[in-house]
Design brief:
The chain is of the alpha/beta class. The chain is about 40% helix and about 20% strand. The protein has a 7-stranded mixed sheet, sandwiched between helices. Helix 3 crosses helix 4 and helix 4 packs across helix 5. About 40% of the residues are buried.
């Protein structure tokens, strides 16, 4: 699915993050910036362990803070580590919107034009995927509508078809509700 929000295209893509490049990749990590959860661990393996050290050198940080590192062997210019997972492996789901927006603002401050976002969802977090999708998409929409930016494309990317389906359904629901409010 693809929609345009002001001057930025939002794309929901069933794909593999390390096979399709962009200027920046946003992904979830913990407040100590250790790359141990399944998503960030895979990124560390593909990018190189020096990426984790670059991140750890900037931490620890408060929940919701994002930091930027080089991308190592991945097809990106920058990696945005979003500290959205506590050390207890919990995520403040209602804050995901702000977390995503903060990450996008950091990426935009580095003049990126294309951003991939890996959904902030891990089975171990015990949160409802729909709620995470709704919060993340609200953060993206808020960023696109309320901030003048160089970002031309934001892609939510996952190889998990269920996650992509939930994001597609959620974005459709959000825009149906917005149309009803206008009408």
């Amino acid at each position: 699915m693809s929609i345009t929000l002001v001057n930025t295209e939002l794309l929901i893509l069933n794909g593999v993050y390390h096979q399709i490049g962009a200027d920046a990749l946003i992904f979830p990590t913990n407040t100590y910036l250790w790359m141990g959860n399944p998503i960030s661990n895979d990124i560390k393996k593909r990018a190189g362990t020096e990426i984790e050290q670059q991140a750890i050198d900037q931490g620890p940080v408060a929940e919701g803070i994002s930091i930027i590192t080089e991308s190592g062997n991945l097809p990106y210019k920058k990696l945005i580590h979003c500290a959205c997972i506590s050390q207890e492996m919990h995520i403040a789901v209602n804050a995901c919107s702000a977390y995503v927006k903060n990450s996008l603002l950091l990426a935009a401050s580095h003049n990126v034009q294309s951003i991939h976002i890996i959904p902030f969802f891990l089975d171990t977090l015990h949160v409802h995927l729909f709620t995470v999708a709704e919060q993340m998409l609200q953060g993206i929409i808020d960023f696109c509508i309320n901030h003048k930016t160089s970002v031309k494309r934001i892609t939510v990317i996952s190889e998990d078809k269920t996650i992509i389906e939930v994001f597609n359904n959620t974005i459709s629901t959000i825009f149906q509700m917005k149309k009803k409010k206008k009408g």
